[in-house]
């Protein structure tokens, strides 16, 4: 681990462990933009900008007469980043609300590369060209456009099979959805009236047949087998008058919408050459994993004299439990010599678990 190398020069250590205010500001803004916290992001950029005041308290456009006016690069790119995040959020909320057809339309309009089999199409955002250095990652779910399109159509079939609406309340109170499309039945209070049940059932059967045909045309045998089995299970929704009160109810839960929304969002970020999570969450996961492995392997913190210059540990790390360690002068490692007068005592701090909240507060 780099932090354990005693031969690092002070300059290298300090630059690694001491982020400047601009880097910290960019890290926080990345988190806000990634999660589409638009109002918070705008307020943060405005209030965290470095301001130079004159003797009267008025803001100066530059630090001195000899300097050119300062340009806040984060503020310049903020609206473009928020637009991308808001579009991602719009697509996901439509899926979470059961409006899959509308979500598919938005997806094709905002992010055509996600459902397009032409992988050579470039992302629309000019910012993507500046992120060529962003670490690549392996998505947890498929980003194949064929799979995504089929998954959306399957979910649309599920939504059309509902007899009881499943309402989704977005945490964002400012986000409102328009009325559902007239061709869709999923968001109505119930299925069609008795005289229309047969027509609605026939429409569902046609949907199912179309899905089977699409799954049968998949190129890979493994994919065909997987989707044919899934469609065989989901097709059971046609059997029950009230599928919400049947063994098929598991396919009508909100969790299935959430899984699809997460998959689509991951595919959007993948096609836009962005990380699936914010940078601060990525660093926190990495650090937490390293700390867990170190603790499990019995690795201790390096002594203060071997820690890089400029490294500041959270309070719990500074107060980590000190584990006694006996060092035998003979270096024989024989258990028979442990506890004898020939040895000498040393101490080592046990490696604590990483707590992001504590680290941020400190």
Automatic annotation (TrEMBL):
Domain CRA as annotated: residue spans: 199-300
Species per Swiss-Prot/TrEMBL record: Somion occarium
Biased composition (Low complexity): 329-339
InterPro entries in the cross-refs: CRA_dom, CTLH/CRA, LisH, Ubq-SigPath_Reg
Pfam families associated with the record: CTLH
PROSITE patterns in alphabetical order: LISH (PS50896)
Name recorded for this polypeptide: CRA domain-containing protein
Region (Disordered): 322-362
